[in-house]
Amino acid sequence: MNLIELTRALIDIPSPSGEEAEVGQFLLSYLERLGYHVERQDVKDNRANIIATLDESPRVMLSTHMDTVPPHIASSEDADYIYGRGACDAKGIIAAQVLAAERLRAEGVTSIGLLFTVDEEMGSLGARAANNHPRSLDCRFLINGEPTDNRLAIGSKGSLRLMIKTEGRAAHSAYPEHGESAIEKLLDVLASIRDCRFPIDDFFGETTCNIGTVRGGTRPNVIPGEAQAELQIRLVTDAAPVREMIERAVAGRAQVEYLST
């Protein structure tokens, strides 16, 4: 397959975070047919990184991720662009890296490898597992593929995901004195988090906090007994100072569960 054909074939395999098995198997089979030594590194729940090498000790790894954000959008193209979920982030990059490795291989370069990970869009479980793989000791350089407007980037913001949970006491809304709203508690906690003055870095800019999901309650005439919100914070420093700020803002009013480190 050429670059466009491979990109479209990858796009047409749905792979939202948590459902990367099919696209991983496609890449494993495809790279084996090209003559690579391919390893399936199990990560969690039938999810696996794909590691392909030509040499026992690759000095350079080309890497990106297989998962996408939902919803799936099938591939299409016109005279100028390829469209579809992952065309840019990051299935087009997978195809480009495979073709780049093939060009280097044709020139006699064998000290290269390919690493395609799972779970990048969520908690980066795949990247953490790859860091513990024995081949990580041999790799001198890793080129990570992400959408950067075709410019070389030397760093990126980190990520911290967390869940905020509150508990109240369910009751009929006609008798509010018998209940305690978990949603109102959650809203107060989220307001405090939004007031936080998170770190700023001269290179990466501002720490940003996205309240991605909010859930709670069962119906409008019942005071909600439980509520939760999932947040993703883009880090410009180590996670520790941001976690300390979150804990101070919550001030014991809710349970904080960190989903990534």
Across the major sheet, the strand order is: 1-2-6-3-7
Number of domains: 2
The helix fraction, in percent, is 25-40%
Structural class: alpha+beta
The gyration radius over C-alpha positions equals: 22 Å
Mean pLDDT: 95
Biggest sheet descriptor: 5 strands, mixed
Proportion of residues in β-strands: 25-35%
CATH class category label of the largest domain: Alpha Beta
Q: Please provide the count of β strands.
A: 15
C-alpha termini separation: 39 Å
SSE run: HHEEEEEHEHEEEHEEEEEHE
CATH architecture of the largest domain: 3-Layer(aba) Sandwich
DSSP summary: helix tally = 6
- What general outline do the C-alpha atoms trace? elongated
Q: Which residues sit in consecutive blocks of at least 5 with pLDDT less than 50?
A: none
CATH homologous superfamily title of the largest domain: Zn peptidases
Topology readout:
Elements: H1 3-11, H2 21-33, E1 37-44, E2 47-53, E3 60-65, E4 76-77, E5 82-83, H3 91-106, E6 112-117, H4 125-131, E7 141-144, E8 158-167, E9 171-172, H5 182-194, E10 200-201, E11 205-206, E12 208-216, E13 222-223, E14 226-235, H6 239-250, E15 255-258
Parallel strand pairs: 3-6, 3-7
Antiparallel strand pairs: 1-2, 2-6, 4-5, 8-14, 8-15, 9-13, 10-11, 12-14
Helix pairs in contact: 1-3, 5-6
What is this structure, in a nutshell?
With 261 residues, the chain is α+β, with helices and mostly antiparallel strands. The chain contains six helices and 15 strands. Helix 1 (3-11) runs antiparallel to helix 3 (91-106) and helix 5 packs across helix 6.
